[in-house]
Amino acid sequence: MIQELHDIQASTGAEFISSVTEANVPVSFGNDAEAILASRQGVILCDRTHWGRLEVSGEDRLRFLHNQSTNNFNILQPGQGCDTVFVTSTARTIDLATAIITEDTVLLLVSPSRRQKLLELLDRYIFPMDKVELKDVTDATATFSLIGPQSDKLLDKLGITGIEGKPYGTHNLIENSTDKGSIRIVVGSGLATSGYTIIVNGNQAANLWDKLVQNGAIPAGDRVWEYLRIEQGRPAPDFELTDEYNPLEARLLNTISYDKGCYIGQETIARLNTYKGVKQQLWGIRLSGDVEVGTAVTIGEEKVGKLTSFVATDEGSFGLAYIRTKAGGEGLKVQVGEIDAEVVNVPFLGSE
Q1: Pairing state of beta strands 218-220 and 44-47?
Q2: Backbone dihedral angles phi then psi of residue 101, each to the nearest 5 degrees
Q3: DSSP secondary structure letters along 264-311
Q4: How far apart (Å, rounded) are the C-alpha atoms in residues 143 and 133?
Q5: 92: closest CA among 212, 216, 218, 244?
Q6: Cα dist from 186 to 100, 224, 227, 260, 318, whole Å
Q7: pLDDT tens, residue order, the chain (352 aa)
Q8: CA gap 161, 59 in Å, rounded
Q9: How far apart are CA 61 and CA 47, in angstroms?
C-alpha cells in the first residue's frame, strides 16, 4: 500500500531518509526552491504519512480527551476539529496534535516522534470503567497536506466542494467511487498558510497522490515542511516542545481553554495565566548569519533566551527562540552567539 506511494514518489525524483522513528520519509523532490515559492503563490503537496494517527473510540472518548489535553472537547461536534496540546502533570509540553471529531471516533494526528509516547500515555489513563478504546491506525492510513493559496482551486478541479471558507478543523468525508473508498478533507494545512489536511486509507494513497500532482500540486519533501514550519513558527517536539516549556510559553494560546475544568496540567496553566507568570515566550528571530541550534540569545552580557530552531531562507537566516518575557518581544535587538539578530513575530503563534 504505502510502498506503492513511495514508488510513485521515487519515480518523480524523491529522496528518502529513514530514522529510528520514521521510515522512508520523502525529504526532497529536488525542487525545494520551486516548492517554497509555490507554497506562497500556488499549492504544494506534502506527504505527512510518517506522522502518527491514533483513533480514540467508545462512548467516553470526548470526555477522556477533554481530561487529557488543553482544549475543550466537550463542546465539539462531529465534523469539527481543533488543535490541542498534550502536557505533563506540571504542564510541560509533550506534543501539539490535531483532533478530528467524527460520528464514532476522534482521530488524533500527532508528531512522528511522539506517536509511541502518546499511545502509551493515553493507554495508561484508560481505567477499567472507561468506555474508551485506543487504536494506532498509522500503518493503515496516509496523510497529505495541501499548502498554498491555490488549494481551493485544486480541490475544485477534483470536484471536491462545500468546504471552502469553513472554520479551521472542519472536515468532510468524500466518497471515492473510483477506488471504492473515502477521503477525509480537513480545513487547515498544519501551518499558518491556508490549505487542507487529507487523510486516506493506505490502499488509496498512491492514486490520490498521483491525481493531486497531475492536477497541479507541486510535490514537496519534508525539508520544505521544516523550512515552512520554522519560518511560520510552528513549534515542534524536541525543539520547542520539550519538558523545559509549557503551552503558554510556546504561545499556543488557541489550543488552551481556561474554563473547561480539570485536566492534566490544568492547575499550572491556570496559575500562570491568572498571575501572569509566563517567564519566557517563543518568537521568530531574524539573524544576520548562520548559528547553531542551542546557542544562547543575549543582550550585552545578559542571557535572555535560547535558539531552538534554525533555517537558511531565501530572505536570510531565520530561527525560533525562547526569549525572557521581561527582556521584551517583537522588535527587540539581540545577539545570538556572535551574530546580531532581531526578534520578530511569526504567523502561527498567538498573542494575548
Answers
A1: parallel
A2: -95, 120
A3: TTHHHHHHHHHTT---EEEEEEEESS---TTPEEEETTEEEEEEEEEE
A4: 22
A5: 244
A6: 8, 21, 22, 25, 29
A7: 789 999 999 999 999 998 667 778 999 999 999 999 999 999 999 999 999 999 999 999 999 999 999 999 999 999 999 999 999 999 999 999 999 999 999 999 999 999 999 999 999 999 999 999 999 999 999 999 999 999 999 999 999 999 999 999 999 999 875 556 789 999 999 999 999 999 999 999 999 999 999 999 999 999 999 999 999 999 999 999 999 999 999 999 999 999 998 999 999 999 999 998 999 999 999 999 999 999 999 999 999 999 999 999 989 999 999 999 999 999 999 999 999 999 999 999 987 6
A8: 31
A9: 28
What's the grid cell of residue 121?
500515555
The type of residue at 189 is S
Per DSSP, 201 falls in state: E
Q: What is the dihedral of CA 179, 182, 187, 192, to 10 degrees?
A: -50
Would you state the cell numbers that stand for residue 150, as one nine-digit string? 491555490
Give the side-chain half-sphere CA count within 13 A for 294: 2
